């Protein structure tokens, strides 16, 4: 593309590269879904076929490094960067090990220049990186893995639990996926900082959001901004009136759902989030909450508490489709919630986990104005207090670790 003599040749190489990248992703991740869906559709017409499906293991992290490659190609095509001549530098950009399997989804314009320049060991950055790794480990091993035990127990036996317990199970999954994914991101960012590399921030305390638009500015930031820059804006963004904004918003959320997995559950999850955000798109309030909630204050107002609670509740409801394995099980779970037993005391109340979650939320709340919750914790306090806190986290990781659980986003 860089050496193309005219636009036609440049466009040819661009679309060839995009097709190859998406082709690999489509074959490995979506072929079976489309074939099975086609066979099921024509079965309603009385025609029955036995489709040939691929029996291969999905390459770990394929969705992430495919998007790395696509951003590089698109940025070259748009003239934002020049083609990289050093194959090693390009390979490091695509396969930098901390982010390879679960992100964040990096941009060539951000990561390549850091790879190319000489880096010296920075003690301050290394300490900060280790601090973020520690917090990420706590999120994953203590919060996510403990929540996973109870979430799995409740979701896998939904028919045996009361509606109130099913709500608790959905809340546990919400904290599981947050602790799991943001914990991985913290570990990735902290590890990269040891090498003098600053990766894109991927989470900014999303469960303290006051509306769905704010939630999506704070959750999986690298993916949200990727879709904004490489799909939403090229489709016309918000320049073509209300209809175009609505259309483009539904497109990016449906594609986001499909990116997460070849399942109708993920598509419904994306569709629900598109519906959630529609009022703010239609009434142009999607950029109302750009600041940090209760900035500079210890406590939020009642209005902010209500807004955060409503946003969290809508998000938890949508997570049900993300967690269940089929639409039938999702609707079965939801019907179990909206039953008379919703107003009973949950039959499963893990007191230790609820205490750990309370401590976790408090720490996250007081650290919400930082890059990660404990980025500035105790900086002005005596060394013994600061190190006591770090050791407490290490001890908690050993004492309260849940049973080993695979990172959720490894499947994507």
Overall mean pLDDT score? 91
- H/E series: HHHHHHHHHHHHHH
User: How many individual β-strands?
Assistant: 0
The protein's oligomeric status is single chain
InterPro entries: Ac/AlaTfrase_AlgI/DltB, AlgI, MB_O-acyltransferase, MBOAT_fam
Subcellular location: Cell membrane
Main location: membrane
GO biological process, one term: alginic acid biosynthetic process
Describe this structure in words.
- 63% of the residues lie in helices and 0% in strands.
- The model has no long low-confidence stretch (mean pLDDT 91).
- The chain has 412 residues and is mainly α.
- The chain is globular.
- It has two domains: 110 residues, no CATH class; 211 residues, no CATH class.
- It is a multi-pass membrane protein.
- Keywords: Acyltransferase, Cell membrane, Membrane, Transferase, Transmembrane, Transmembrane helix.
- InterPro entries: Ac/AlaTfrase_AlgI/DltB (IPR024194), AlgI (IPR028362), MB_O-acyltransferase (IPR051085), MBOAT_fam (IPR004299).
- This is D-alanyl-lipoteichoic acid acyltransferase DltB (MBOAT superfamily).
- Belongs to the membrane-bound acyltransferase family.
